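Suppose you are handed only these lines of text.
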Amino acid sequence: MKVPAWNPAVEFMAREALERVQLAGLRQTVAWALRTPFYRRRLAEAGVRHPEDISALRDLRHIPYTTKDDLRAAYPDGLLAVDREQVVRLHTSSGTTGMPTVIYHSRQDLDGWTELVARCIVATGAGSRDVFQNMTNYGLFTGGLGLHYGAERVGMLVIPASSGNTSRQVQLMKNFQTTVLHATPSYLLHLHAALASEGVDREQLALRKAFIGAEPHSEETRRKIEQLFGIDAYNSYGLSEMNGPGVAFECQYKTGLHLWEDAYVLEVIDPRSLQPCAEGETGEIVLTTLQRQATPLLRYRTRDLSHLVSGHCPCGRSHRRLARLTGRSDDMLIINGVNVFPSQIEDVLMKTPEVGTNYLIQIDKRGSLDRLAVKTEIYAKLFTGDPRTLDDLRERIAEQLRAAILVKPAVELHEPGSLPVSEGKARRVIDLRPAF
Ligand code: ADP
Ligand code: ZN
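From them, the structure of the protein bound to adenosine-5'-diphosphate can be written out as follows.
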C-alpha cells in the first residue's frame, strides 16, 4: 500500500539529517529568543549569550525549562521576539488550568503551522477529495483556525462549522455529505446521541474519518466513536503554546502520534526530579519550538504525560511517536491518599457496554474523608422500571472502579442527555473539596 504523505522529503528524512535540521533550528530559535528580555536573562544564567554557544543538540540540556507560570508572568508581550509590525495573529490557550497564555505568530509562523497540519491530515489518508467539517471553536482557541488552514492547504472542501449548534452540524453533515470531522471526543459522543433525535441515521451520512483531540481520552473512547459512527478516528495532539493542533498526530496505522521533529525538539522528563526519563518510560512532555519566530519557546513544560513508542511505524516516517496522552501531571486526584487519574475512571466506564456517552467525576469532603462520586449516563432502554437492574449495574460499575483505582465510588446512573455537555473541552472533574 502506498503511504500518503504531504511532504515526503521531510516526513521520511533519515534521523541524522533530521538531527542536523534540529540543530540549525535550535540555533535559530536561540537567536530569536535572545531578542526577548525574558530569555536574554534566562539564557545568560545558563551561559548562553549567542546562538553559537549551542554547538550540539545536547546543549539544550543546559537551558532552563520554561513553564506555564513563566508565560503567565510574561503576559502580555514579554516573550514577543519580533517587532509588533511583523505579528499577524495571536492565539491564547483555553485556560483549562488557570489564566490563559498568549502566543504571537508572524506570517512565516502561520505558514509553518499550516504546513504541519497539512502533513497530519494527509498522513491519515484524508485528502483533497474529502469534505471536512471543522466542529471546533473558531476564535482564540487554536483548533478552529489551525485545522481550517491546514485543510484548505490540502485542498479539502472545508465547512467552517465551528462548535455547538448540534442540529445544524447534523444538517451540514447530511446536506454536504461530510467525509471527515474534527471535534473533541466528548462532543462526537454527544453528536452521535443527537443523530437519532434529529431523525438522521448513519446511512444518510458519508462519514469516513474523524480527527479527535484537545482533551484526554482513552483507547476505549476512540473505539466507541469508531463503532458508533462506523469510521476511523485519529488522535490529534497539540497545545496553543506549540501553535495548537499539528504537533503530533496518528497516521493511518494508529500506532502512536508522530511528533514533527523538524519543528519541535521532544524530551520526556520525570516531573519531580526534572531528569530525562528512560526510553519508553512515562513522564512529562517537554517541547522546544524550532521554527517559530514571534514566540520562540525553549524547553516548555507542557505538563502532559506520555511516553515514547519504541520501534518503527509501518508507515516509514522517521519522526518518533508519542503514546496516547494519559492526562496532565496536575490532573491527578488524591482521594483519601490514593492517587487517581480521571483517565482510569474513563477507561472502566467506556468498557462497560451499558454506559452511554457522558460522565462526570465529583469529589467532596465529609468530615475528614474524601468522597468520590461517579455520575454516568446509561442507555435509555435500561430504565425499565425494575430497580434491581439498575442496582446491579451500579454495583458492578462501582466494583470495577474499585478494582482499577482502589477507591470505591458512589455510582449514579443518569438518563442520556441529562449531564452537562461542553461544546469545547469537556469538564469531567468537579472537585468541591476546600483548598486546604
Ligand atoms: P489549555 O492548556 O488551557 O487547555 P489549549 O487549548 O492549548 O489550552 O489545550 C492544550 C492542552 O489540551 C494540551 O496541553 C493537553 O493537555 C490537552 N490535549 C490536547 N490534545 C490532546 C489529546 N489528543 N489527548 C490528550 N490531551 C490533549
Ligand atoms: Zn506512522
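What can we learn from it? The first strand starts at residue 87 and ends at 92. Residues 333-431 form a domain with the GMP Synthetase; Chain A, domain 3 fold (CATH 3.30.300.30).
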